Amino acid sequence: MQIAIVLYDRFTALDAVGPYETLGRLPDSETVFVAERTGPVRTDTGNLALTADRTLADVPRPDILVVPGGPGQTPQMENEVLLDWLRTADATSTWTTSVCTGSLLLAAAGLLDGRRATSHWLALDFLKRFGARPTGERVVFDGKYVTAAGVSSGIDMGLTLLGRIAGDDHAQAVQLLTEYDPQPPYDAGSPQKAPAHLVEEFRSNSRFILTQERSR
């Protein structure tokens, strides 16, 4: 089974690495990082790069497709090379997945029309523009489409899908060996729990809100 994780300039590292460290533990599988061109692809901080060993054209029929999000997702929304590849890969994939705003790329490719999906909390309403049905759940299954909420939820998505494919014991073994046992120092991981002033600050400065205002 081939797992293809898409890279593009200014993706968020954990969006890709979370599924890589969990779903990538699928037995008898190959995980490949793909991009338009081979070579290093910089994350949103600019301080880290992952290497794409294959081009999109090299991997036309992955069994599992993983699309990370990040600030770089916005310009990719009009990248027909990537969007066409997503449509082509999805036509034969067993599972098509995303993390964070990666779901907006799936939606822009027309793959989430009428489907339940999630994304980063700041981007949820944006999904509606592309015909998706946004939900605030952390991991959402709709047929073969699996979308995860913001950044860290890619770990949950990877483990959940791993359990579906390889069984609960294998997924629990991966969780144990990675010692994924969240005990955060703050209970501020969602807009429902975080201090209101922080939620408002991020909402007012969100690239999605700014995009909506410019389009009015």
UniProtKB/TrEMBL annotation:
InterPro entries for the chain: Class_I_gatase-like (IPR029062), DJ-1/PfpI (IPR002818), INH-QAR (IPR052158)
Keywords: Glutamine amidotransferase
Record-level GO BP terms: regulation of DNA-templated transcription
Signal peptide: none
Span of domain DJ-1/PfpI: 2-162
Keyword Metal-binding: no
Superkingdom of source: Bacteria
UniProt-listed Pfam families: DJ-1_PfpI
UniProt keyword Ribosomal protein present: no
PANTHER family in UniProt: ARAC-FAMILY TRANSCRIPTIONAL REGULATOR (PTHR43130), DJ-1_PFPI DOMAIN-CONTAINING PROTEIN (PTHR43130:SF2)
Name the record gives this protein: Glutamine amidotransferase
Organism: Streptomyces brasiliensis
